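Quick one: structure for this chain?
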Amino acid sequence: EIDAASNNGVDNIRQLREDAYFAPGQAKYRVYIIDETHMLSTGAFNALLKIMEEPPPHVLFILATTEVHKVPATILSRCQRFDFRRIGSEDIAGYLEKIAQKEGVVLEHSAGLLIGKLADGGMRDAVSLLDLCISHGGAVTAEVVAQAAGLAGSGHLLALAKAFSEKNTASSLEQIGTLHDKSMDMERLCGDLVAFYRDLMLLKTVEKPERLIVALPEEMEEMKPLAKRLSLSQILYTLSVLQEAQNRMSRTANRRTELEMSVVRICNPAMDSSADSILARLEDLEAAVRRGVLADPPALSEGRADEEAPVAKGRPKPEKQEAVLAAQAEPAAKTVVSALGDLSEAQPFGAWQEVLGRLLKTNPPLFAALKNSDAYEKGDLMLIDAKNDLFFKLIRENEFAKDSLRDALLAQTGRRYRLGPYRPQGQSPAKPEADPLETLLRSAKTAGIPVEEK
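Got it. Here's what it folds into:
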């Protein structure tokens, strides 16, 4: 076996070539394992290529590398390629349980899964970590694995993330100051926050995130409510700000200041003009409009954000105000699909195409039914002039269609409309066509032809 990282010169490969031509003394083949092959120099690769083009019948080369793209194509074309992939955490846990059973050690399944995640798909690292956990004595639990692997608790990260979500700048800076006084490295703290928000992103987007997140089960349960409360835009914005701070920390001596500046930006997105910040603020505003209340501006670092602001006399508190608005919006949300009286006051609705664009993303069938349609606004009533009768059928029979159209109008205008059909003044509903059989019967009776009806 040859380590190409330390034997990467032309002379090393030339010596290998000279030795390779000698027949093996005992075995049938002479096997050369070249580890970290991508570390060979260009001259060494050229020297290796000469013997690989016409190798002796008793010589086999095994080239191992983690960066196959750095190996020249002339070498790859003369090799059989086998790609080894990471082993799944469940498979690693199952194999470790077999080892523990043979050794007479109690290994909890959750501990085996945690070892599998920490090993990152490597069985050798997993067995080494299990050996280290067994040396602690007693049963191998998830807590023992966390202690042996040096996993730091995520309690301080969860507290910081909650302060970020509440836009509480003062509390966030106080917590960072406390951690700094405990001699915690600020660059390490920033990296831990990046990893923590990466876990929140996975909890928000992946159906089964347990396979991708390295955390204790109780820590996972504590993270789920926070991930549910935060929007994906907020998580991505916080991730981008923290990663920028982590990159700058390597170029400055005052790392604490860099982290504190980033925390102020996270708690006050209005101070940031980046695209991620604007998207996060827009999503907060849209969510507030859907609830029927305006979002309060985030409090700056002067004073605590959790202090209750004075309420003007006679003005209801936000919770009561939201309940009142919701109660007022409830009767207005009922759909009205009926013939209307005078429509002379109805005005063309100018943002109808934008509403249809939103429907294309949320309800494509309804969008197709509204093709070439127009809309007219009359107070809180939105009148739809649709050419396709399928639209009226969907509105009458499908609650999802009605909710989709209401939500699209609400997202575009901030108002909740009642829905109705538009019929221009003087136009009456089309009369149904006469039954041909009835017409034939009337004609026969008029002509005096006896007709027997059964």
